[in-house]
Design goal:
The protein is mostly helical. It has one domain: Urease accessory protein UreF (Orthogonal Bundle). It contains 10 helices and no strands.
């Protein structure tokens, strides 16, 4: 790692959680836009409950658990473990747009790391060879910040929460005050989601969310869309 270009600790986590990170997270709604189209989400309360449930049922049990396991694998450069985790992510994307999202954001984050020289050539080359899904690329970026895994997962989850809140603001639509109340609720829920992710092993990880998969598939052919599919 080139320490002359990488901020340390908290600053690195804030940077990685920022919606300004140029990896395209803002362009996906992860099924939320389809849920709005179907009338399942239609006001602040339903939008907040939807995103909170998604945090606990999909993020904590799937991608956040992968990130938690991939960070030590990156620190040890455990190539078989990294490949196995990356393969699991790819095989659990249930729709074309879910696969597109994880592949595109993974490539973009790898390009960001390469552009800012925030990883060694060995790490960058290995990440490119996977090829990286978003959780594996983010785990590499988080492994470069000397912070506990718990804090790294909190940053990851809050970055996801900000993107989903912005999707709700545009799609429902909602006002900025409603968005801040959504984030306040998510901030209270994130520690529990992190604890769940940290306790899961390979046998306990899961990506079973059939309603989300159905909505994602419907979104791919939805007539009017704000978000990418």
């Amino acid at each position: 790692m080139t320490t002359d270009t990488a901020p340390t600790g908290l600053l690195q986590l804030i940077w990685l959680a920022s919606p300004a990170l140029p990896i395209g997270g803002f362009s996906y709604s992860e099924g939320l836009e389809a849920a709005i189209e179907q009338g399942l989400v239609h006001h602040e309360h339903s939008a907040t409950d939807w995103v909170v449930q998604q945090l606990h049922l999909t993020q904590a049990r799937s991608d956040m658990a992968v990130v938690a396991q991939a960070i030590p694998a990156w620190l040890a450069m455990d190539n078989p473990r990294l490949q196995a985790l990356n393969d699991w992510v790819m095989t659990t994307r249930e729709t074309a747009e879910m696969r597109l999202q994880t592949e595109q954001m993974g490539r973009s984050l790898l390009d960001w790391l390469r552009n800012l020289q925030q990883a060694s050539n060995t790490q960058l080359d290995r990440c490119a060879q996977l090829p990286p899904t978003y959780p594996l690329a983010m785990a590499l970026a988080l492994s470069l910040a000397p912070t506990p895994i718990e804090q790294a997962l909190q940053a990851y989850a809050f970055g996801w929460a900000e993107n989903m809140t912005q999707a709700a603001l545009k799609g429902v639509p909602l006002g900025q005050s409603a968005g801040q109340r959504m984030l306040a609720r998510l901030a209270r829920e994130i520690p529990q989601a992190v604890d769940t992710a940290l306790q899961l092993n390979d046998e306990d990880r899961q990506a079973f969310s059939p309603m989300l998969a159905i909505l994602s598939a419907r979104h791919e052919t939805q007539y009017s869309r704000l978000f990418r599919s």
